[in-house]
Amino acid sequence: MRSTRSLKDIVFRWESFLIALLLVEVLVFGLINPRFLMPRVLFGSINNFMTISIVALFVTFVLVTGGIDIQSGAIVGLTSITIGILWNDLGMNLYLALVVGLFIGIICGALSGFFVAYTDVQPMVVTLGGSFLYSGIALLLTNFSSTEAYKGISGFPDEFTQFVRGRIFGVIPHQLIIFLVFVLIAYILLHKTKYGRYIFLCGVNRHAAEYCGVRTKLVVMSTYVLSGLGAAVAGILLTAYLGTAKTDLGKEITLPVITAVVLGGTSNLGGTGGVIGTALAAVVIGILRFGLSLANVNTQYLDIPVGVLLVLAVAIRFSAGNPTVQKIISKLRKRSANP
Amino acid sequence: MKKLIIALMVLLLATTAVFAGGAQEAAQSDDVMVVFVPKLTGNAFFEAANDGAQAYAEKIGFTVRYDGSPEASVANQVTVIDNAINSGADAVVVSSVDATGLDDIMKEAMKAGVKAVTWDSDVSGDARTVMVSQGTPDILGKMLVDMLADSLTERGKNPATDPIKYVWHYSQATVADQNSWRVAGEAYIKDKYPNWINVNPSNYYSEQDAEKAITIGEAILMAYPDIDGIICNDSTALPGQAQAAQNLGMDENDVSITGFAPPNSMKNFARADVLARWGLWDCQIQGALGCYLGYYLASGNDIRVGDKIDVPDIGVVEVFPNTVLDANAYTADDSGVVLLPERAVFTTENMDNYDF
After folding, report:
1. What are the chain A neighbours of B179 within 8 Å (beta carbons)?
2. Which end of chain A is more exposed for a tag (fewer CB within 10 A), N or C?
3. Does B79 touch chain A (CB under 8 A)?
């Protein structure tokens, strides 16, 4: 047991590696294109990957239990179109509509979570079904709208859109502050509460957790509810940021979300991981894409470096903990010491 | 672990440097940089438009950066345009996936001094300076009818006096553009060819479903064995209708089929003499014209409604008010529509000059 954290522990934590990576990115991209370092530009880029980051925070909970959630993109779209229709076509108060949107996220998460926790169907299959179901419902809902499905519902009041689009001192986007608040909430929930311990325990060994008196089914289900809620929040933010409510908002975020969680150090086998790692990884990926784009790399090729980063980083991370690899490394080290 | 981390860092740094280094050269010159944004990358229509834009820009002497995401989505397009603003582009030329979703980012671009142009698919009128449109309903409706009349004449009919039986076959009753072409085409027929007979004034719809287009196509030919012409103003309906005629052993001498579709989707039917001619606008010129207008604005020129702009190699284009496309559109002096000077009619003689 570690009672006190030595400096070495902190330096060699995965999160420290991600921070170093972030600094390297800022340095390299700043050298390539000095515009990158302008605070307005650098902070402004954050607006474009906040949806992924916020969803990833809560999908981390699901992966820690050993599950996976690929329905969050569909929930983002469903939340968005529901809010749009309630507000635009049914004349509901916008803020009430936002609350309904959050409830939709909770219900969607609970439904899939129930099937994952109380049946033995694989989480991948359940949430794949969920993604079809929820995006299908979102398309169905557009029939209640006077706006055609291919057009978004727009014209939201300024106070709603500006709350998300605004910047403090004209530099720091509100979305960044909102993100940091959610990081704090997720961090406390997963790392500082008994409930968070239960989530880890379910991921390490569900049977053992069950024998310890943890109601594992409820805990597993609750992680999907949280991830659905996170997706609904992201749906609201994206609707406000784009100023349009559409069924297909968020459809492209599913795999980037999983990427951020896994790069953040959460094992897709469950049991290990953390919110801070996910948050850092989401920013590392976002800044990488933005920086390369400013360096004139075409958007359609940006998946290549992200793919390389993910596979390499995770491969090294896992092999570093592998005893055979460790033996080889120490052998190499000895050889280089005594030539 | 320490060595591994250092190794990983170096590797990442190297990858980034290689990626960025290769791309950096393009941005060195003082050229005007136009960012050309498709709805999505990897689609034949948009790639062809990009080819046209690149070749044209090279000739005129400005840089076109083609930037889009493989997935058509509003959020992706917003990111691409935002990055264009941040990287100091001079103009963005966008085919929007959403009628209103890009309005705010386009306005932001204009505020930041980046010129905003749309092509193929528009945003709101106040969110861009000019739109390069494939044509007004009147132009495209007339073009469809004229193509049919030409095919009929070619096989010995006289469109001016014979009681020509014809019908429309396209996607569905709810799409705005195709219906507006039909309405304009019908008005043109009533005016010029009052002797023509529409055998089914409520039209045939195949809902952009390739299989359904064939089924509906066969149904039309069996229900009216003596039909003279079928107008398919939809790029799925046209190949489906041609396939139907081929399945029933008919060719261009039995029935005249025409409509709008990219040349590549119809070349085999034309070679088999199933149809004589069909049309579309040249998306390569559309891409080139859009980028040129971006460059034109970024070079310090103003575009106002009523202006005539001389576009090298393409011709003189006039800036019309937004109402030419939609009677309810936003009108302002500094927001207009430019129509492609010409659309292309494809036949076996010229179709191999087009690759899209």
Report:
1. none
2. N
3. yes
